[in-house]
Amino acid sequence: MELITTIADARRRLDTARTSGAQVGLVPTMGALHDGHLSLVDAARDACDVVAMSIFVNPLQFGAGEDLDAYPRDLDRDLALADEHGVDLVFAPTVEEMYASPTLTSVVVPELASTMEGASRPTHFAGVATVVAKLFNIAGPCRAYFGEKDFQQLVIVRRMAADLSFPVEVVGCPIVREPDGLARSSRNVYLSPEERAAAPVLHRALERGRDAIESGGRDAGMVAAAMAGLVTSEPLAQLDYAEVVDPVTLARPDRLEGEVRLLVAARFGRPRLLDNLGVLVPEQG
Ligand code: PAJ
């Protein structure tokens, strides 16, 4: 496996691979790799000839007072895991390499970025969309793998790639969970044992929302309230939002039909955790 730290080398390496006919798979990450990230690598390996992973803790997507400095970083461990899982090259630039001069250009998708995660983190998705646009430009034509774990991010990246005609096929991959339902996240390491025990309430809330729909509930507000009620019954959880949205527009539908996405977020002590679930609303006879 190769470690590449400059934009020019990454571009050259992937251009060369494509010249010899290879399909490139790109897995953007911020490191602190876990099974969730590695599932994206496995999906990329299955469909591509060359798998490139980026590891870059992107300062642009962290707000003031967020965990940029404390974000877990262990490049040697990440490189070993990437190698074990068949990654061909890791692109791990420094902040100075990625942002050589102060960034005056920003990629924004305001209609999709102002609710849910965007409501409590107003600059977050501009930081994500901007760095992902840079990564797409560096990688060139490829398939890019993102987790449904960060569902709003996936929807925004997909829309950005389509709106700006990037030669990139954005592929969404299912959420990898712990046996008790907690979604794998780099931020789970911040949980105390008590908070860790409480955290699966997010997944249970999503299941409660799905059950409400499957037993006939068609009012998004009522389904959202059922999920919120379960999260707030957990004393260690501070609910941020519980939502039911259209999976493309992220708007709350008046009446539930077709595919919908249930999303929840809550703080457990220091970390804010997210989870979501897709539901196909049964047709009513
Ligand atoms: P990061 O949080 O490191 O996540 C990298 C990718 O792994 C994202 O696409 C995320 O959705 C996916 N992922 C994380 N946990 C997962 C899980 N439990 N199951 C499936 N996939 C999971 O997301 C980012 O980094 C950044 O915002 C980035 C896109 C790299 C831009 O900086």
Describe this structure in words.
- This protein is an alpha/beta fold.
- The chain has two domains: 2-173, HUPs (Rossmann fold), CATH 3.40.50; 186-277, Pantoate-beta-alanine ligase, C-terminal domain (Pantoate--beta-alanine Ligase, Chain: A,domain 2), CATH 3.30.1300.10.
- It is 39% helix and 20% strand.
- The protein has a six-stranded parallel beta sheet with strand order 1-4-3-2-5-6, with helices on both faces. Strands 7-8-9 form a three-stranded antiparallel beta sheet, covered by helices on one side.
- α7 packs across α8.
- The mean pLDDT is 97.
- The structure holds pantoyl adenylate (PAJ).
- Pantoyl adenylate binds next to β2, α2, α7 and β5.
Give the secondary structure arrangement, pairings included.
Elements: E1 2-4, H1 7-19, E2 24-29, H2 35-47, E3 50-55, H3 75-84, E4 89-91, H4 95-98, H5 110-113, H6 117-120, H7 124-139, E5 142-147, H8 151-163, E6 168-173, H9 193-198, H10 201-214, H11 220-232, E7 238-245, E8 259-267, E9 272-280
Parallel strand pairs: 1-4, 2-3, 2-5, 3-4, 5-6
Antiparallel strand pairs: 7-8, 8-9
Residues 28-30, 36-37, 39-40, 58, 61, 128, 131-132, 146-147, 149-150, 153, 173, 175-176, 183-186 line the site of pantoyl adenylate.
